[in-house]
């Protein structure tokens, strides 16, 4: 395939958000070019868990996760101290109740292959460095490749989807609201005979060095290939966040679960890396006259648990719908609908998540909530439904009642 010098839609970033948009747009006949800075063979150390709703999104894109080696997951064992409560995934709106764990690099490879199959041009090892702007309109991007060459490509519209703390997005004026919480995480991979387990493990509020439960969780995700993804995540709203070394927290957590999962915490397959992920729509603006921002670049990750793949796929879908209409009718003002669509689908949920993060940032409140909640399977099931955003309009279950109360409070709270 000859590299295009111009395209209908230029997608900066070949992860879930960018590929979801590219697949949908290319499938209906639009010219799409995806720029991905990696060469596709580097390991990616996070984002291995797919909740059932993410599986639904992938299925709509024509991606069969079973065919690319995903390990099916029935639910999560929630731990607090010595007590464990198994909770199955809630059914999605499409009826799916099984999630999956898959290496993020394998997922990205499958998405890029699908994008190419439906007609998108996917350029690996091509990093978009700076936007090309004419009279306030983005008209393309300058590109650097891994072999050191430079290029430029023009476009009618552009999608920014190059991940958390997006460099390209910042070049277009996006910025994070520093009042809103972000996630700090670290993980590693280890070898285990339990790699094909059909349940993940989530440890709520693992203790810091002083014994306080952090506002966050630890996880063990069985990948199915002989390895586990073991990690910890903490919200910046935690009162003592600046006193926590996330790498040492990971070491302590790995040691605490090693016997249960049958691995040697000292035998790590990769060295852990500290990451920061903006959450809950804390990055703006989400659009400009000829560009949209999707996925982690728009801070769409879930503020309850830090998961970003489902939101990335969903915002990529929304971006594709908006750009399809703009390309079809030839009117760029259609892009103005994008922020409103994001607000309608995720705005209230994000605000409730940010408020909850603030509330649970106080160790005494968090300890009380965790100690009370872990005693009840119903309470943990409701918490999982809220955390995975599988709430049902018109239903009166515990999850819906708790969420409605929180949403009412959030209406009168500051916008953080």
Characterise this structure:
With 416 residues, this protein is an alpha/beta fold. It folds into 3 domains: 6-69 and 104-178 and 282-349, FAD/NAD(P)-binding domain (3-Layer(bba) Sandwich), CATH 3.50.50.60; 183-277, 2-Layer Sandwich (D-Amino Acid Oxidase, Chain A, domain 2); 350-411, no CATH class. It is built from 10 helices and 19 strands. The chain has helices spanning 16-27, 52-60, 104-117, 167-171, 246-261, 309-329, 337-359, 363-373, 377-387, 398-411; strands spanning 6-12, 32-36, 49-50, 71-73, 75-80, 83-88, 99-101, 121-124, 126-134, 137-145, 150-160, 175-176, 182-191, 199-204, 216-222, 227-235, 275-278, 283-284, 291-293. The strands form 4 sheets. Strands 1, 2, 8, 9, 10, 11 and 19 form a 7-stranded mixed beta sheet that branches. Strands 6-5-14-15-16-13-17 form a 7-stranded mixed beta sheet, sandwiched between helices. A hairpin with a 2-residue loop joins strand 9 and strand 10. The longest helix has 23 residues, at 337-359. The chain is globular.
CATH topology of the largest domain: FAD/NAD(P)-binding domain
What percentage of the residues does DSSP assign to strands (E)?
25-35%
Determine the fraction of residues in helical runs and give it as a percent range.
25-40%
How many domains would you count in the coordinates? Answer: 3
Output the structural class. Answer: alpha/beta
General form: globular
**Count of helix runs:** 10
CATH class of the largest domain: Alpha Beta
Q: What is the typical, i.e. mean, pLDDT?
A: 93
Q: Give the SSE string.
A: EHEEHEEEEHEEEEHEEEEEHEEEHHHHH
Task: Please state the CA-atom Rg, rounded to the nearest Å.
Answer: 21 Å
Could you name the ranges where pLDDT drops below 50 across 5 or more consecutive residues? Answer: none
CATH superfamily annotation of the largest domain: FAD/NAD(P)-binding domain
| CATH architectural type of the largest domain | 3-Layer(bba) Sandwich
Instruction: Count the beta strands.
Output: 19
Distance between the termini: 47 Å
Largest sheet: 7 strands, mixed
């Amino acid at each position: 395939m000859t590299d295009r010098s111009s395209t209908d839609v230029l997608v900066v970033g070949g992860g879930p958000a960018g590929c979801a948009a590219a697949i949908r747009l290319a499938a209906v006949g639009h010219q799409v070019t995806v720029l991905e800075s990696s060469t596709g063979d580097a390991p990616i150390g996070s984002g291995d868990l797919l909740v059932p709703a993410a599986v639904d999104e992938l299925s709509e894109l024509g991606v069969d996760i079973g065919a690319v080696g995903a390990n099916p997951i029935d639910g999560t064992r929630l731990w607090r101290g010595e007590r464990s409560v198994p909770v199955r995934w809630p059914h999605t709106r499409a009826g799916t109740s099984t999630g999956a764990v898959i290496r993020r690099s394998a997922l990205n490879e499958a998405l890029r292959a699908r994008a190419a199959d439906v007609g998108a041009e996917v350029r690996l090892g091509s990093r978009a460095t700076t936007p090309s702007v004419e009279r306030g309109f983005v008209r393309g991007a300058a590109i650097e490749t891994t072999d050191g060459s430079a290029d430029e490509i023009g476009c009618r519209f552009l999608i920014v989807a190059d991940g958390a703390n997006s460099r390209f997005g910042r070049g277009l004026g996006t910025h994070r609201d520093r009042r809103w919480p972000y996630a700090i995480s670290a993980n590693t991979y280890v070898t285990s005979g339990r790699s094909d387990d059909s349940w993940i493990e989530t440890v709520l509020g693992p203790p810091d060095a002083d014994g306080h439960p952090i506002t966050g969780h630890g996880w063990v995700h069985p990948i199915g290939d002989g390895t586990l993804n073991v990690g910890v995540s903490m919200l910046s709203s935690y009162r003592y966040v600046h006193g926590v070394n996330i790498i040492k927290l990971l070491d302590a957590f790995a040691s605490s679960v090693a016997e249960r999962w049958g691995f040697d915490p000292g035998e790590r397959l990769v060295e852990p890396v500290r990451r920061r992920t903006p959450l809950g729509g804390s990055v703006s603006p989400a659009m400009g006259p000829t560009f949209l921002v999707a996925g982690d670049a728009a801070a769409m990750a879930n503020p309850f648990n830090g998961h970003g793949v489902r939101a990335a796929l969903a915002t990529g879908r929304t971006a594709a719908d908006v750009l399809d209409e703009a390309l079809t009718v030839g009117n760029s003002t259609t892009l103005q609908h994008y922020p409103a669509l994001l607000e309608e689908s995720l705005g209230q949920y994000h605000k409730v998540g940010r408020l909850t993060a603030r509330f649970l940032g106080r160790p005494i409140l968090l300890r009380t909530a965790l100690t009370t909640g872990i005693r009840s399977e119903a309470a943990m099931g409701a918490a999982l439904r809220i955390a995975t955003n599988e709430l049902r309009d018109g239903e009166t279950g515990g999850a819906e009642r708790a969420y409605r109360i929180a949403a009412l409070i959030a209406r009168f709270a500051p916008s953080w």
